[in-house]
Task: inverse folding
């Protein structure tokens, strides 16, 4: 579920004052801190072609791929040899979340939607640097983006597809 929310938040960051152009890629570090203070760190890369085509490659501490076409989210967990399918939740209206984003100071924005606060930070070049929020389990989530590249001219959208190896279990 943490992977799905990260994907949905990035989809949402395409709206309102925080705009990501097509053909975007970046490395990321995702830190999740539980209410009890346990910290889990994930790392990898993310890329997208437009508002519908995204792929998150988690490489640390486990290997997962999370892809979406805007309608369905596919999660391939290579450690568990499992593939899970989810429908994008109609109840999460990311366009409205980002339309509520307000500049706080400098390059920091805040959006409040359905009693959830989302903090978005841009770097000095107005590129996405960080997204922070509390997830549905009250975990603090922070995603820091690095090596951000916008508008890549030779971007191959075929690299955004998740191809599950044969023999993996399927969960719907």
Result:
């Amino acid at each position: 579920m943490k992977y799905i929310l990260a994907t949905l938040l990035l989809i949402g960051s395409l709206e309102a004052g925080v705009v990501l152009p097509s053909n975007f890629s970046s490395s990321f570090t995702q830190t999740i801190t539980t209410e009890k203070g346990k910290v889990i760190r994930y790392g990898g890369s993310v890329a997208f072609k437009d508002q519908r085509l995204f792929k998150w490659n988690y490489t640390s501490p486990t290997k997962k791929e999370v892809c979406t076409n805007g309608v369905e989210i596919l999660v391939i967990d290579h450690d568990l040899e499992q593939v899970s399918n989810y429908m994008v939740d109609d109840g999460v209206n990311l366009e409205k979340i980002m339309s509520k984003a307000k500049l706080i100071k400098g390059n920091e924005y805040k959006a409040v939607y359905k009693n959830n606060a989302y903090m978005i930070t841009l770097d000095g070049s107005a590129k996405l640097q960080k997204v922070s929020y509390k997830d549905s389990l009250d975990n603090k989530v922070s995603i820091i983006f690095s090596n951000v590249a916008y508008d890549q001219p030779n971007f191959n959208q075929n690299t955004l597809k998740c191809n599950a190896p044969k023999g993996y279990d399927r969960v719907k």
